[in-house]
Amino acid sequence: MTQIITVTNQKGGVGKTTTAASLVCGLRQRGASVLGIDLDPQGNLGFNLGLDVGTEKTVYDVIRGDCPIEAAIQSTEYGDVLPSDIMLSAAEMEFTAPRREFMLSDLLTSVRSKYDFIIIDTPPALNILTVNAYVASDGLIVPMEAEVLSLVGVTQLQETIETVRATFNPHLKVLGILINKFNGRLTLSKDILEMAQVVAEQLDSRVFEAKIHRGVGVAMAPAHGQTVLTYQPDSRPAQDFLSIIDAVAGERFPRPKPKSRLKYISQFFN
What we know:
The chain has 13 helices and seven strands. The chain is α/β, with parallel strands linked by helices. Helix 1 (16-29) packs across helix 12 (236-249) and helix 8 runs parallel beside helix 9 (187-202). The protein is globular.
């Protein structure tokens, strides 16, 4: 059964795309079939996953009806991607037809059975694109930085989530709040964590036990068309993301067992 997960927060710069790309890559590494959908007009998800963004059809062309969704999906070594570009920024004014909240959900009907997971990256706004993602999704992951303004962005999501539940998608769940750029030695980080737990309870959710710590590799990986999971797989942030992927993948797609050093040495000499 396909699980559709949206990564969302109306505040920018909190790690939404980094989280979405890591989920796509990490789930694919475990043998799951994964589709990443970029609903952010900045188009960064495809860039993070190694696509030459701007050369092919995008989610905008699909929503407009200019091409079928299958023709716009591109394959990468990290998973399939439905890319985006700046043209999608016209969505709020251009897509005004009845049932416009169901555009994405309807489009996914023809492909969702092909995937174990569909991961949706959203813009830093509570607009029609974000609502489409919520309507199509089973669950939400809410990344936030360990700072006050990021927490405010999370609290402002609550009304939109409740509206979507009441009107369009009663089964929508918040899978968890994910703390990014965490530093447990700072009093601020500890205070924000406590407040995030209160907000999570209000959303009938939780704060993920694993926190994503700061690391240079997280910032450098996109420049190489990679996620931190492949760029610096042994780094602290990569290990943090693996713990989040454990929570998402569950028992269906367990973490691969590392090759033993003895086996590696044997292969080297053979």
